[in-house]
Amino acid sequence: MINLLVTGGAGFIGTNFVHYWMEAYPNDKVVVLDTLTYAGNRANIALVADKPNFYFYHGNICETGLVERLLQEHKIDTLVHFAAESHVDRSIAGPDTFIETNIVGTYSLLKAAKKIWLDDGLNQNRHRFHHVSTDEVFGTLGPNDPPFSEGSSYAPNSPYSASKAASDHLVRAYHQTYGLNVTISNCSNNYGPYHFPEKLIPLVITNILQNRPLPIYGDGQQIRDWLYVADHVHAIDLVIKKGQIGECYNIGGNNQWSNLDVVKFICQRMNEKFASDAHLVEKYPQAKKVRLGQAQDLIAYVSDRAGHDRRYAIDSIKAMCQIGFKQKVTFEAGIQKTINWYLSNDTWWKSVKDGSYQEWTPAQFEAKQVNNGGR
Ligand code: NAD
Ligand code: DAU
Description:
seven-stranded parallel β-sheet; binds nicotinamide-adenine-dinucleotide; 14 helices; binds 2'deoxy-thymidine-5'-diphospho-alpha-D-glucose; alpha/beta
């Protein structure tokens, strides 16, 4: 049994991780620390809020004292660090919070972990700090370059990726200098349930349902390597259980698509869904284009992202050979699952898009926080 502290557990990947972990390991204790920025959503973790081994703390990773208290009180032996500002466009518009959360916040967690695990000796010989990072730290690839490997040089191009690169370096330094037991995973683009609809795939699905434009930055020929979120979450489990201390693991989908092709693919699948399901036609009267089988007419070319990375691709061979990582969900199946999830959870994405999700505070959730001492 392990006692986990999950930072950013109310965000996209963190939520999927918490759901996965509590189902796979029902006897482990899972403590979530999340400050609930615009990207954090209490409703995401409502499914597990009632479980006696689940605790939620509304707080900031920059509060080192709070993190120390949680590590101590809950006898945490494994910290999985998702909390971050994660959207590249927002980092271009305003880098401050990216520097604060991604760099200073990671430093705060490392400081707390060192104090409790190494200086005070709690779980000194049995602790793990797993840092969830991104392929964006490696910069951009040319059309014929080999995919990023763990040995690729760091060359971040956006304030977001630079802040993630800095956090990776700090995690590495705490291992080399102080002997903290760390692992790092650098993953490619995720998609799936609970993905915040400012990111390409959920934006396109929900905009089709609202008959809104589908913005393509620049020429739409930028390439991303897409991985279904459940495969990423499983890979993190493998790194925690089987990864070597001090090592980094690249995790990817071996699934490179241009943005334009991804958007056209989703349009096609949505057209087919509406053509075969009269109930959808009734449910979404405003979705005019997709009802006519013409979702692709919503595509709109807009100005390019500043410093836009042209291509990402990940070589996962190390994770495959050393910890048994194997992608289970194909892009075709993953996109179908994702579309189905958004179609079945329109209250979720509508409340996110209109902002009302931030008022979501069911009574039982509040009571649970009081009972378990959460803030
Ligand atoms: P997200 O933006 O959906 O969620 C981030 C979560 O962190 C939110 O719940 C937010 O409230 C919380 N948070 C932000 N600042 C905080 C702070 N100061 N203190 C406590 N909580 C805070 O992000 P995501 O897409 O789920 O990404 C999670 C992690 O995975 C990030 O570190 C990101 O860099 C990394 N990653 C993401 C992808 C991807 O495709 N989304 C791919 C590779 C790596
Ligand atoms: O590679 C991993 C990274 O993937 C993570 O580290 C980031 O946290 C995550 O946000 C994601 O970054 P991207 O910038 O690749 O994802 P995004 O969904 O914002 O954009 C995907 C591609 O689509 C990118 O080339 C920009 C483009 N795009 C995006 C949006 C939102 C568009 O063309 N139109 C859009 O409206």
